[in-house]
Amino acid sequence: MKRPIPQGLLVAVEGIDGAGKTSIATLLAQWCGERGLSCTISKEPTGLKWGTELRNSARAGRLPLEREIELFLLDRKDHVARSIEPALREWNIVILDRYYWSSAAYQGGRGANYDEIIAANEAFAPKPDLVLVLDLDVDAGLGRIRMRGDRPNLFEGKAGLRRARQIFQQLAEKNSNALLIDTSGHFKDSFNIALKAFQKAAVQKIASSAMSCVEMANFTLTFFGGEQVADELPDATPEMNALLAEAKKASL
Fold first, then answer.
1. Contact residues for 93 (Cβ-Cβ < 8 A; gap 6+)
2. Is 4 among the domain residues?
3. Residue-range definition of the domain harbouring residue 218
4. Is residue 120 part of a domain?
5. How do residues 103-140 score in pLDDT, each as one tens digit?
6. Could you report the per-residue pLDDT of 168-185, keeping only the tens digit for each?
């Protein structure tokens, strides 16, 4: 049985290519699926009309900056209307492999005002509950792309990537819903950090809902890999108990 999360949970995985975004987004979705949690995973640019034009430009030659910004906005509006908002209305967890911070970083790397790009997107796009910003040195990221048998596309010149990385770092530093994760080490360590942040964001969303204490406890235990309970909680770690206490207090 699929279990929704109240009001849904929106998680964006951001960072330069090669940092591990697709791998972490995929494993988070798999983790949810294994626990019967309703989850949707998606990627930007999409495979829809405007996203396809953007993907083609990455191979054939980058478009003028203003056109590139316009296409990302059109593609994201389509994505929000067709996929993201319907999934959140169904109380699904939505995990995105890139979202509007990527537009801010990559078009900002070409000289656009990244704060203006953020504002234009947040005028219509749901704000994430959590943004996981995967941070990696540009040369290391390009090396990983080549190691997996791919060639860097035209969005991935070194100078632009360095500026995009700086913008991602700046956005992460000034937004309380973001976590900057160094992915230069072992992938398992990076994923465990991402998973803990994901669990915490889910518990906070559950705590802000109108669920009963027992319902919130069941959801919370699910996110920590425990079994559901009926009327009382089994022994739990201090961290889990603190989060459960927060959830109970929020429901009073």
1. 5, 8, 9, 11, 32, 37, 38, 39, 40, 202
2. no
3. 211-252
4. yes
5. 999 999 989 999 999 999 999 999 999 999 999 999 88
6. 999 999 999 999 999 999
- SS3 for the chain is CCECCCCCEEEEEEECCCCCHHHHHHHHHHHHHHCCECEEEEECCCCCHHHHHHHHHHHHCCCCHHHHHHHHHHHHHHHHHHHHHHHHHCCCEEEEECCHHHHHHHHHCCCCCHHHHHHHHHCCCCCCCEEEEEECCHHHHHHHHHHCCCCCCCCCCHHHHHHHHHHHHHHHHHCCCEEEEECCCCHHHHHHHHHHHHHHHHHHHHHCCCCCHHHHHHHHHHHCCCCCCCCCCCCCCHHHHHHHHHHHHHHC
Judge if 160 and 249 occupy the same domain.
no
Which residues, 6 or more positions from 211, have their beta carbon under 8 angstroms from its beta carbon?
6, 219, 251
Do 243 and 152 belong together in one domain?
no
Structural domain count of the chain: 2
Task: Assess whether 244 and 220 both reside in one domain.
Answer: yes
